Predict the structure.
Amino acid sequence: MSRTDRPQGEQPRRQAVLEALRASDNPLGITELAERLGIHPNTVRFHLDALVAQGLVDRRLEEPSGRGRPRTVHTPHPGMDRGGQRQYQLLAKILLGQLSTSPDAGAAAEAAGRNWGGYLIEHVAPSHQPGAAEATQRLSAMMSDLGFAPEPDGEEAERIRLRHCPFLELAEENSSTLCPLHLGLMQGALTEIRAPITATRLEPFAEPDACIVHLSRRRSPGQGTRSHQRNRST
């Protein structure tokens, strides 16, 4: 059952259990909590189980001072409450806004993406150098993990469709910085695994339901010089 599927009365009551533990100077058992809150012990037990599972409450056995069995007591888990709202989209907007102040925002975003791409790609043996098909597969796996729903055109694809953007609303407003960042992610990943291909271009919203990534063979060092020398000799 998801958070939105739970009965509306559960969350306020669960919060009341947590607040009662926080207000107490001593660990509390189920019976004590039930008495303080005026609810049935089974209801308290249900909410405590959920709070323990969420990491908000710690449960332990307390040894009795005299004869008798140890009793189970509960204390709030130390640290800041991890419940409540998150504002990651606001944070992303702030960071994109700061990035856009660069003289060449697109190039700065692409460079930032390249730095992270090598970190995000799945690593194998350092001596292993993949072929084009394997590199495309590993790149697609990374983009799939990030939520882009990639769809390569064949095994040795020259294009990859990205059918989902996990930052869609931000991309619609900030494509000039966010899309180069995504391109940089792919370039950095392919460089990290020493792939024979690279991502040369990303077309935002090239199709009604997809962005298009263009791939090409990576030019080996000196390739352009050798071709130029051959042309001169002929």
